[in-house]
Amino acid sequence: MVDKNAIEQFMTRIDEAAPVAIGAGAHDEAQVETELADADYRSLTLRLPITLNGERLMRIRMRPPFLEDIDDWSNAEISNRDLLARLCGLPAAALKKLVWNDAEALMEIFHQLVPEFVFAAAKDDA
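RE: above sequence
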């Protein structure tokens, strides 16, 4: 089990200024991207596809969370459902339309990818 204080010290708070890169000038803005391969994603083939913006959605891909995702959740900027939707690249409203069997299978993947402390903390997702 990871020490909670160590996690909190590592994460940024909502009122904390973003770190400045070494050697970066005040006018420089770094563009940082993470390249994910297909193997980094987890996929779920839906038992009952949904239609999103007129297109049939038969499979949902979920990416692993980035630190910024967990920071946003930790700072109460997003709910668990919003975090799930973000990782899937879908609107939260679309996830609400999943049949229970598909939603449950998606939540199993979510629990495998997201740190355990996300589920230990009580959050209001209403």
